[in-house]
């Protein structure tokens, strides 16, 4: 799968993250593992982030409301403490999440992640 994904990326095939390509999906955990695996194929952090934001919005025909930050679009974003363009693992440095206009701080996110993690034990 690693080589296949690398070939797709190198030939310009638009890729989407959050699929089941690399195994079982566990909300809040598996996406970061997928990012690391994609980077190991040679994808740059910028392209990995595009595969998580703009490309899915284009594919789902929701680019008018999702995928980028602009006036009039849905208020959904992740605020990071470190730059993911320097290192894709910086996507784990989450300070907070804005979801449908509601802010979740780090403490609230930790509680949600603990609940998800315990559901899979």
UniProtKB/TrEMBL annotation:
Swiss-Prot/TrEMBL keywords: Plasmid
One Pfam family, short name: Amidohydro_1
Residue ranges of every copy of the Amidohydrolase-related domain listed in the record: 12-103
InterPro entries the UniProt entry points to: Amidohydro-rel, Metal-dep_hydrolase_composite, Metallo-dep_Hydrolase
UniProt cross-references to SUPFAM superfamilies, sorted A to Z: Composite domain of metallo-dependent hydrolases
The keyword Translocase is annotated on this UniProt entry: no
Protein name according to UniProt: Amidohydrolase family protein
Source taxonomy: Bacteria, Pseudomonadati, Bacteroidota, Cytophagia, Cytophagales
């Amino acid at each position: 799968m690693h080589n296949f994904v690398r070939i797709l990326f190198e030939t310009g095939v638009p890729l989407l993250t959050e699929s089941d390509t690399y195994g079982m999906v566990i909300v809040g955990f598996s996406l970061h593992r997928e990012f690391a695996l994609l980077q190991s194929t040679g994808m740059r952090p910028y392209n990995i982030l595009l595969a998580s934001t703009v490309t899915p919005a284009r594919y789902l025909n929701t680019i008018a409301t999702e995928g980028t930050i602009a006036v009039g679009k849905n208020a959904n974003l992740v605020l990071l403490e470190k730059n993911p363009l320097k290192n894709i693992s910086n996507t784990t440095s989450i300070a907070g999440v804005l979801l449908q206009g509601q802010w979740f701080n780090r403490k609230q996110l930790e509680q949600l992640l603990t609940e998800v993690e315990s559901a899979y034990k």
